[in-house]
């Protein structure tokens, strides 16, 4: 039975790619955008751009209102107490770098930071570099065969010197929800701070951040059908108070002299310089759009498509799936076939999938791989996209084998 997305027509980018003969199956890298977001971007620029928080003129007040309204919408979306707990960054990567610099003085030589073996470079390298700067130990939680963090080993590795746990909610390579409640409870029991990388998790179901009970939660707008250049960092009040300022410049300052200055608290104290105003307003429009959808219908459609993807891979010979993906994506290799060759032949046939190490080089290395192909789905994908993928895939394998 065909699985048609009732939302496909809301995404002009997907329709344009259709017209060009391109099948987009790389939404885990970045998503297409709804018309509502494009209208908001154009509307902001067409009605007169202005900087936020600075000017008392009408365009400035209008821009500030739209910008701050989005902060409130994000707080509602994440179901957290207050918009003051929401900081804008340029993306997940910048949010985690903010934390790695902002928390630096919380650590003493010999302290431990715990991550997992599946982390994206964005949630590995900032901590690795912090560990090098401060003489800390970086502990890496191993995975089980399905691709979940192994809880028994985690209980051993999250020890008394653990000061911070930073883990992904949903792996961008393995497509598995990680056992956050158990892991976060272990970190809490050690008095450690916790950071959840929601870059992938925030896209599939609404994250109930208070139920997670983490100190920080981060995601990127562009993966959640919003614009590029905007990231979100949620912090619990007491955790935000432990952050040191890290970027310095306009609007983050309370009072400045030539030789000294005092700084604003979060959120504005961590948003130095002109923020991505249009992008933030665009994210607000995306959230309005997403809020208007039936979450059960979206989840049902995504699950049905994902099942179709897994079933199609399962009936073909020589496919090695990475882990046991649960949602939205599947990464795999094919026996005797180089992933880059496969991706090349898929691309020649108008299929846009991702190949390579997926910014998780240590994970791929630990699986003995230099690369893998990843097919990832958005709410606008149809079963016809997967039909086109599988027929191109079969043709490519015929040529390569
Ligand atoms: C799990 C995960 N974390 C972090 C990132 C980094 O996101 P960004 O490039 O938007 O900063 C990504 C992007 O692919 C990701 O999948």
Explained architecture:
The protein is α/β, with parallel strands linked by helices and 401 residues long. The chain has 2 domains: 8-25 and 294-400, Alpha-Beta Complex (Aspartate Aminotransferase, domain 1), CATH 3.90.1150.10; 38-291, Type I PLP-dependent aspartate aminotransferase-like (Major domain) (Aspartate Aminotransferase, domain 2, 3-Layer(aba) Sandwich), CATH 3.40.640. The chain is built from 14 helices and 15 strands. The strands form 4 sheets. Strands 2-8-7-6-5-3-4 form a 7-stranded mixed β-sheet. A 4-stranded antiparallel β-sheet has the order 11-12-15-14, covered by helices on one side. Helix 2 (35-46) runs antiparallel to helix 10 (277-291), helix 3 packs across helix 10 (277-291) and helix 12 packs across helix 14. The protein is globular and about 70 Å long. 46% of the residues are buried. The chain binds pyridoxal-5'-phosphate. Pyridoxal-5'-phosphate is lined by residues 91-93, 120, 122-123, 168, 172, 197, 199-200, 220, 359.
Throw out a few tags for this protein.
about 400 residues; seven-stranded mixed sheet; globular; 14 helices; Aspartate Aminotransferase, domain 2; 2 domains; Aspartate Aminotransferase, domain 1; alpha/beta; binds pyridoxal-5'-phosphate
């Amino acid at each position: 039975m065909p699985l048609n997305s009732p939302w496909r027509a809301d995404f002009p980018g997907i329709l344009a790619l259709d017209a060009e003969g391109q099948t987009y199956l790389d939404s885990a890298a970045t998503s297409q955008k709804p018309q509502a977001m494009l209208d908001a971007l154009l509307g902001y620029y067409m009605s007169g751009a202005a900087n936020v928080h600075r000017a008392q003129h009408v365009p400035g007040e209008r821009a500030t209102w739209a910008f701050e309204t989005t902060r409130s919408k994000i707080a509602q979306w994440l179901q957290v107490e207050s918009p003051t707990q929401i900081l804008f960054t340029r993306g997940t990567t910048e949010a985690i770098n903010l934390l790695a610099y902002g928390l630096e003085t919380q650590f003493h030589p010999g302290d431990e930071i715990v991550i997992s073996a599946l982390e994206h470079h964005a949630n590995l390298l900032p901590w690795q570099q912090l560990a090098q700067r401060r003489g800390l130990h970086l502990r890496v939680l191993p995975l089980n065969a399905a691709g979940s963090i192994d809880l028994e080993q985690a209980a051993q590795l999250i020890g008394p010197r653990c000061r911070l746990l930073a883990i992904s909610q949903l792996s961008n390579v393995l497509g598995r929800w990680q056992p956050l409640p158990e892991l976060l409870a272990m970190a809490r029991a050690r008095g450690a701070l916790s950071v959840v990388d929601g870059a992938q998790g925030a896209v599939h179901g609404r994250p109930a951040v208070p139920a997670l009970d983490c100190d920080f939660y981060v995601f990127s707008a562009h993966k959640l059908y919003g614009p590029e250049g905007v990231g979100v960092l949620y912090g619990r009040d007491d955790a935000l108070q432990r952050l040191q300022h890290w970027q310095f410049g306009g609007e983050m300052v309370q009072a400045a002299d030539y030789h000294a200055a005092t700084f604003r608290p979060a959120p504005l104290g961590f948003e130095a310089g002109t923020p991505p105003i249009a992008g933030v307003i665009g994210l607000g429009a995306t959230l309005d759009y997403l809020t208007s959808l039936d979450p059960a219908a979206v989840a049902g459609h995504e699950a049905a498509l994902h099942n179709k993807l897994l079933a199609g891979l399962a009936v073909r010979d020589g496919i090695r799936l990475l882990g046991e993906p649960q949602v939205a994506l599947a990464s795999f290799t094919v026996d005797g076939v180089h992933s880059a060759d496969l991706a090349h032949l898929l691309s020649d046939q108008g299929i846009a999938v991702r190949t390579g190490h997926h910014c998780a080089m240590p994970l791929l290395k630990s699986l003995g791989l230099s690369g893998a192909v990843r097919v990832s789905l958005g709410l606008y994908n149809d079963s016809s996209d997967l039909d086109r993928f599988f027929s191109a895939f079969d043709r490519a394998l015929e040529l390569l084998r």
